[in-house]
Design goal:
The chain is an all-alpha fold. It is built from 16 helices and two strands. The N and C termini lie far apart (52 Å).
Length: 450
Amino acid sequence: MPPGITTLAADTPTLSAANTGFMLICSALVMLMTPALAFFYGGMVRVKSTLNMLMMSFISLGIVTILWVLFGFSLAFGTDIGSVVGWSSDYLGLSGIGVTQLWDGYTIPVYVFAVFQLMFAVLTPALISGALADRVKFTSWALFITLWVTVVYFPVAHWVWGAGGWLYEMGVIDFAGGTAVHINAGAAALGVILVIGKRVGFKKDPMRPHSLPLVMLGAGLLWFGWFGFNAGSWLGNDDGVGAVMFVNTQVATAAAMLAWLGYEKLRHGSFTTLGAASGAVAGLVAITPSGGAVSPLGAIAVGAIAGVLCAMAVGLKYRFGYDDSLDVVGVHLVGGIAGSLLVGLFATGGVQSDAKGLFYGGGLEQLGKQAVGVFAVLAYSLVVSAILAFLLDRTIGMRVPEDDEISGIDQVEHAETAYDFSGAGGGAAPRTTSSDPGSTAAAKTKKVDA
């Protein structure tokens, strides 16, 4: 998020139709990222968990939207209270906001800012869901989202982006969500999985993605939506900063994908589609906090470093024994940490602010600020998320029964399956005749292949 802008009366902004339209488009792109994430995660799980994985993302669109309107926007972006949380009665229910009332210091309406930030709030808990694949009750997950965004996401968003928030005032740079979104979600994922435990068969049974085409589709849509996520976070398009962020988003993502694939080839001997998709997401995560502070060459460095670090980190779950099903910790937590800290090295001082990193003569000051932001959000989210998961597990229970997990969570929780293997609607069976001695064998072969 850009820093606050102080204006004189003569310079009071007026509503810009161009910036308003631009931000509404960016909001729509960020909204697309949640169903894109559903496809990305949905393809990575086994067939029997596909629908549940999709629903764990989609339900966030419903729950978080209502909470944001009722009180979430007020908690995150209302008048500061103690540098920890916001509160403004005019924002409750979005009922006290004028149609043309501008967000302070900018040329877009408050409504536009509110809906843009809503899409960030929706996406963040959906990111957590990938770590919990195959084993969580849907009702418990919905309640966890409700509690988590209220006591973790809304306050942390205020710390990082809200006027008066303590990390904002300290000068921590987080252009579009390295701390508030990715470290926040990754730390929460780690906290929850430490409480609920491993999937049945972890480290024993193969748990390969059931549809890599779905994974690639999801990754491509995430890449597309991320341009709105990142470039839109400057809240306008007047001074070129958003354009730099757009370029850096593309550059870092490309670098991370190549770096992940290179590491994968050296380490495992193959270039995989899952590696390409995961590397792209790692680059998107890492450039999110840093892209408004670095040059395109710096973006290459950020992406390449994140690609290798995240590729290395995904294997840590097997070494340390925590079951991060779809590598939320390895990609989002590690990628968010890398991107946030690298601001302290590669910030040029010539894009979003005059803060310079170590490699541009700024010393260690900015790196120190970034480290405070990283570890404050990580610790708060990890501890509070684990407490929430523990309380839910001890009351209504977080996990489905073991038999239900083995048989398939889709049928148990949603009374549906992702694919119909019964053959209904598949066309007529081939005719066989006694005069064709090979026809019976051919028909059997067809049946086996189906």
